[in-house]
Amino acid sequence: MAGEWIECALADACNSIDYGLTASASDREVGPRFLRITDIVTGHIDWKSVPHVATDDATAAKYQLHDGDIVLARTGASTGVSAYVKTPPQAVFASYLVRLQAKPEFDARFLAYCLRSDEFWQFIRSVLGDKSAQPNASASTMTKAPLRPPRDKAEQRAIANILGTLDDKIELNRRMNKTLEEMARAIFKSWFVDFDPVRAKAAVRREHPDWTNEQVSRAACPNLKPEIAALFPDRLVDSELGEIPEGWKVGRLGDVAEHPRRSVQPENIAPDTLYIALEHMPRHCIALSEHYGQVVLEYRAEVRGMQQRNLAVEMLRKLLEGEIKARSRKNVVQARSFAELLENAIKKYQNRAIETAQVIEELIALARDLREANQRGEKLGLTDEEVAFYDALEVNDSAVAVLGDETLRLIAQELVKAVRNRITIDWTVRENVRAQMRVIIKRILRKYGYPPNKQAHATELVLEQAEVLCKEWTEKA
């Protein structure tokens, strides 16, 4: 009967409830995409960022995701978070996710929206109880969640379509914003890197030396507003960086901006004091809101009042993992050290050794340490590449004690030169290349008196760092 609503459990609406695949993700394209909890925390799946997994055909078929599947997080800070799978590529799902497949009489997208409702989250909170240190719930427990859907599947579909239209509009806006950002980058590169308007005006000026700037601008840059085109000169001049527009100059960021190095610990800040910290910048921008004409930073108060504060942990963890992953492409030792600190903090949280508020503070402190690590090169008088080798050498305490900072700096600088001189070597011929580099590294270490009993470990670590940097330099070349 149209308009009739029924009561049932989530399990009653599902044809299949399955746990995922236990395996390790890979950044290499070794198999299907491998959907994890971290890939669904926003409720939107960006398949391009989802890693891969090596698996055989039978296993891939068993855990394959299909259009209309629903995945539900069952453990960790995101327990209860779900995502609707829409036109996926070849993909499987990880063990900490539960896959739900709707019965024929239920609309899958409608069920997906039910899992985002206040009623569902109230049920999840009641199931988790006081598990803030390590939230988790089994598939059988979570699928006991009560539902109240229309009996008529057409009505379910109509409701889902309305909500889906709104979601689609949000997704369209997100894509539009991404396109606008890409356009802005392209314009910046054209104007301030390639100097296209200047080159166009220079070409017109050579043909019409007697024209006014307005005439040259109009002919060379017809798509630019006249007042903007007029700002660009019509001649390039030499500089230490190559050709630049006439009247422009080469400088450093410090010439036009200050970098005040002042910091304060969050515990020393009064609750009503406004401040900016890492957690206010989840998408590389500062999240601000207007309140009575004043800018109010909301995160601290929001976290204190959040019913799912564990989501803040998940967000911070994901942000830190991204930063550490980026750092691993430049500084192996530093990335490894921070990854270990992050893992230890999360383990303590999952083992209920610390509460949610404590792990949030630990993760924010870790982010602060990451930021301060970026300044080590300036303090040591080394480039980022030299710092990477310095860190590889410094892991040995006896080497620091015997040689001191100054000698380690010299070794790091010489290692960078040695590796740069061999940037074109083929790292795919791994053993031959490693043998050559190993000889060079040992020679440099012996030259400066690096402790003999520690040379083997240092050599392998430096070798690993050299491979990472060579790959980075080659990609930029």
Q: Any overview of this molecule?
A:
The chain is of the alpha+beta class and 477 residues long. The chain folds into four domains: 8-151, Adenine-n6-DNA-methyltransferase TaqI, Chain A, domain 2, CATH 3.90.220; 188-254, no CATH class; 266-371, no CATH class; 378-476, no CATH class. The chain is 49% helix and 8% strand. A four-stranded antiparallel sheet has the order 2-7-4-5, covered by helices on one side. Strands 1-8 form a two-stranded antiparallel ribbon. Strand 11 (289-291) and strand 12 (294-296) form a beta hairpin. Helix 14 packs antiparallel against helix 15, helix 14 (384-394) packs antiparallel against helix 17 (455-476) and helix 16 packs across helix 17 (455-476). The longest helix has 40 residues, at 153-192. The radius of gyration is 28 Å and the shape is globular. 28% of the residues are buried.
Structure, briefly:
This protein is an alpha+beta fold. The protein has 17 helices and twelve strands.
- End-to-end separation: 68 Å
Alpha-beta classification: alpha+beta
The CATH superfamily name of the largest domain is: DNA methylase specificity domains
Total individual domains = 4
Note poorly predicted spans. 282-308
**What does the overall shape look like?**
globular
Major β-sheet annotation? 4 strands, antiparallel
Strand content: 5-15%
At the fold tier of CATH, the topology name of the largest domain is Adenine-n6-DNA-methyltransferase TaqI, Chain A, domain 2
Rg for CA atoms: 28 Å
CATH classification, class level of the largest domain: Alpha Beta
Give the topology string: H per helix, E per strand.
EEEHEEEEHHHEHHHHEEEEHHHHHHHHH
How many strand segments?
Answer: 12
- SS summary, helix count: 17
CATH architecture assignment name of the largest domain:
Alpha-Beta Complex
| Spatial strand order of the main sheet | 2-7-4-5
Helix content: 40-55%
On the 0 to 100 scale, the average pLDDT is 81
